[in-house]
Each structure stands twice: as structure tokens, then as C-alpha cells.
Amino acid sequence: MRTVGVEEELLLVDPETGEPQALSAAVLARVAQDDADQDVFEKELHNQMLEFATHPQSGMEELRSEIVRCRKEAARHAGEIGCTVAALATSPLPVSPSVGMGRRYRWMEEQYGIATREQLVMGCHVHVSVESDEEGVAVIDRIQPWLTVLAALSANSPFWQGKDTRYSSYRSRVWQRWPSAGPTERFRSAERYHRRVADMVATGVILDEGMIYFDARLSRNYPTVEIRVSDVCLHAGTPVLIAALARGLVETAAREWRAGREAEGHSVSLLRLAAWRAARSGLTEELLHPVTMHRMPAETVVRALLDHVGDALTETGDYDRAHEMCAELLRTGSGAGVQRALLERTGSLRDVVTECARITQA
Length: 362
Description:
Largest sheet: 7 strands, antiparallel
Function: ATP-dependent carboxylate-amine ligase which exhibits weak glutamate--cysteine ligase activity.
Helix content: 40-55%
CATH topology: Creatine Kinase, Chain A, domain 2
Keywords: ATP-binding, Ligase, Nucleotide-binding
Order of helices and strands: EHEEHEHHEHEEHHEEHHEEHHHHH
Oligomer: single chain
EC number: 6.3.2.2
CATH class: Alpha Beta
Number of strands: 11
Shape: globular
Strand content: 5-15%
Structural class: alpha+beta
GO molecular function: ATP binding; glutamate-cysteine ligase activity
Protein name: Putative glutamate--cysteine ligase 2
């Protein structure tokens, strides 16, 4: 069974006002005093962010338990210096992001200017194990049309600088400002993939391979395909669903490759339109169907994804739970819907943030 790991980026906020707090260095100093968490938490681009990574897991229950534990530990460490964490993909409240120290981040700020300073966005990255780079690239070539469905399921960033953006995932629109971000054409071999990455680094527009921000890429540190389209999710169960579906996509694509089926896909132009539609609509309206690229109700498109990976989900024991969780999200809405409902009920973005911080740690 393929293993799965999750990376989540959390927003550091004041527990009373909900305002973002540039305290990641202080939080990580606390983490450094705890031997158990030193390999879990990391700094990120902005001082208002804190990242954690789970260990590779085979079972979704184990993965969920680790995500819950990491969120609670993040909140504990943050609480020791007077802030807390919220699983929000953008800050609902106005913020002036503070870029972290270090040569890499300073290079990015100098190179990309305001695009770097405004990149206070929190994502969820899923790593799924693969047997080789050849298998990994074959998977990347085949899964891209389906990734927009994961983006819609995870959408959790409707607000930006104190205003409703009318998007479900505005994070993904901000993320597209990086020059290497987004969907890719089919590579067809690992050699071509690595040649393309080397050519991109050689331009000097990006600093190194770590700045290859494809929607799905080969990890440079682990034998995995890394899927990077999702917002950080409000409820701890949602990244588990995203991880189960991501593993199903990887396994299904690998089987197609081993069976000799050609990778069928769409142009980057169409993939970008599908990504925009998912960011705009989330689960509330229509999405572009990954096979036909025709507009269809979100429920129809989510069911198509479940059908596509059904055999893989059954074999890992995730079929029933994935169907139940997708049905619940379609009924209640993703994190974006929860945030908007909270604002409608309370009339206060501060209350939205503080309630989301509570949900994050539940």
C-alpha cells in the first residue's frame, strides 16, 4: 500500500482579536526545546505562518490522528507566547505580511517584489509514494485534470484583506503569481521532466529546484509525487479525505501506465481554466468535468472523481469513508462556506478567525 504524508501551513493569530501575528521565530524557538517536535515544525516564507509535516502513513486513521496531534501541538507552542493557530488559507482580516529572515527569502523578495510580500497564503501538500521517477512522471502526466476537484473540495479562502473576494479559493489565485506555478504539459518520461526542471532553473528566474511550483511534482527530498493544489483545510478530517483521494489518483494512474495506456489529457490552457473555475466556485456551483471539460454541477464532478478512483479506494479500505465525507462536504460546504456562514451569523471577521482557530484545534 502506498504511503501518504501531509504538510499543512497554519496562520498564527491573536486568540482574542484574530489578527495575524508575525511570531513564527518565537514559536519555533519553543519547538526547539521539545525533542518530540523538532522534526515536525518548520518556518515558512512569512513570519505569520507555521508549517508542520506528518510522517508517512499507510492508514487514514493514523494520518488523521497525526494531523490532529500536530495541530494541537502547534496551538500549544503558539499559546506559550500568546498567540494561536488557525487553519485558514488566507487571512480574513487585513494584514501586512512580514517576510522571514534568510538568504532564500530575501532573494525571493528582491526578485519578485510585491508578489512575494503578498504571498501570505496557506496550503496543504500531499505526498504519495511512488516506486521510481518514471512511475512518478507517468502519474503526474495522468492526474492533472482531476486535481481541480481536490482544489474545489479543499477551498478555504474566501476573504482577502478584509473583503469577500467572491472566490472560494482565493489562495490559489494568489499562488499563481509565482512564475513556475500551475499545471504542466505532459512530460512522457522522467528524463524529459528533469531536463525541463534543469532548463527552468538555468534561466535564473527561479533560484533552484525547490521553486518548481507545479501543481504536481516529483519531490526533491522523498520518493513521492507531491500534490500542491489544496488550500489548508479548516476541519482536520478534510486533509485526510484529500490524501485518500490523492493516493487513489496516484494508484489509478500508475496502473494505467503499467497497462500501457497512453496519457490522455488537456492543454495547459484548458487546465488553467478548470483551475480557475474550481477556485471561483468551490462546491457551490459548476465545475469543469476533468474528462470532457464541459461545465457540470459540482456534485456530478465529485462523483466522477470517486468513480475514477473507486477500485483503488476499495483496495485501501477508503471507499466508504471517502463517499461519506464527499457527501458531507457537498451538503455542508467546504471551509469557504463555513467562513461565509460565520460572517453572516456574527457580522465580524474577527469572530470568523477566532471561531476558525477553535475549529482548527477540535
